Amino acid sequence: MNFFVQNQKEKESYIVLDEYRKEILDAIEKTKMATLFTFSISNFKRLAIRKGFENTHISIMRVIKEMKKTFHGQAQLYQTDSSEYILLFPKRLVEPIEIGKQIHNLFAKQLSSLVIDIGYAISEQSSNAEQLLNDSYMAMTMNNQSNAFAHGFTEQGKSNFSKQLVIENELEKAINKGELSVVYQPIVSTNDLDFGFEALVRWESGLLGNVPPLDFIHIAEKSGLILDVTTFVVETVLVQLQEHPEIPYINVNLSAALMDNSDWFDGLLEMIHKVYVSEAQRLSFEITEGIMLKEEHHVTIHKLRDLGHAVYIDDFGTGYSSMSYLIDSPFTGLKIDRDFINLLGTQYEPVVKNMISLAQHLNLSVVAEGVETDSQLSSLKEMSCDFIQGYLEAAPLTRLEMNHYLLSKGEPASCS
Fold it and tell me: How far is the CA of 185 from the CAs of 155, 251, 278, 311, in angstroms?
């Protein structure tokens, strides 16, 4: 039996949820042990803008055709809107993650740059058909940080999701309520002549208390609030540079969500170079290596460099390292992740030495992160590492603490 339902309004095989919701619920009710997948192309609009809506639609329809062949006789497919889908299996699946992988791979063949979220729920865990739909959708929208191709609904996940919603709601109010602040961790040269800072956002919520960055940054990225958070950090840093002309540079972190929003990014750069002309080139950026850089990302980085901004690869060694990644990229330098610095003094110390040597051969400046001991500093000096950052020099400093730190340093040398 072919479980795919044909919609007469379209040549392709899908049903619009708003018009056929009852039919979906009825189909679920008829099954004794259903597994329901909900999946969405979260960057659909951006793909449509970049590749054209018609081209994107055609690519998706090709995937739908291929999916029909792949799951013929096994599942029933519905489309809820232009970028969200439901796949109903009338049985409990032994390996739902494998189905998630198949769904992901089918789309990836046609649209390699897509970002797809997949969630699933099993009927025995839900009280009724309506609940199964809700559970599957919740599993899809949860901010899971694992690398699984699909995320299943769990009560713990539901609890976590509820907490994330509270964080998201409070974060939306945080900027206007003055709950966000910026701290600054020094970056110093191993010859102790030059220094700068990395800006780090902090949140002291009136409702939630101190919220660690690990708990809210990924929620900000998922919800789009990262745009407001980063704008706040950048403007705060520029004011600090304006008040302290003796500071050579301050680094600000950029997330993947920002790299993919060219309109917002262009607006930010325009503000920086029109309002803070004198301070603009002392603003530097860090881009985590966890971002798989695309062609359009390189265009953005080149734009930053052309405007005079230094750009570093952050957390180097933890993401998508390759020779071509470094040779072909327009980066100023790289920051070696603290996990590698902890290898100093062990049999794996040559790994760090080779990373520094590679960067130097490519004329990239090197910052060692998480330096906490004198022995680590000594080793890094022997390896001719350019800069260090970590608690050995100083913890992240408040604005007042930074003033004291600057006084202790006296007049710093220019850091170009």
Answer: 39, 10, 23, 17
How far apart, in whole angstroms, are the C-alpha atoms of residue 262 and residue 275?
A: 20
The pLDDT tens digits of the residues spanning 388-402 come to 999 999 999 999 999
CA distances to 167, 254, 304, 354, 369 from 312, rounded to whole Å, are 30, 10, 11, 18, 13
Taking the C-alpha atoms of residue 220 and residue 167, their distance in angstroms, rounded to an integer, is 9
The percent of residues in the chain predicted with pLDDT above 70, rounded, is 81
Mean pLDDT for the chain overall: 83
Within 13 Å and on the Cβ side, how many CA atoms surround 163?
12
3-class SS string, 23-73: HHHHHHHHCCCCEEEEEEECCHHHHHHHHCHHHHHHHHHHHHHHHHHHCCC
End-to-end CA distance of the chain: 70
Phi, psi (deg, nearest 5) at residue 19:
-90, -25
**CA–CA dist 217, 171 (Å, integer):** 10
pLDDT value at position 42? 75
DSSP lists the bridge partners of residue 200 as 183
Using the structure block, give the residue that is written with the tokens 């602040």.
181
CA distance 16 to 243: 57
Two structure tokens written together for 407 = 């006084």
pLDDT in tens, 238-276: 999 999 999 999 999 998 678 778 888 899 999 999 999
Helix (H) or strand (E) holding 351: helix 349-361
Show the beta-strand stretches assigned E in 209-363: 209-211, 250-254, 283-288, 311-316, 333-336
Lookup: tokens for 273: 């170079």
pLDDT in tens, 292-324: 566 677 788 889 999 999 999 888 765 554 556
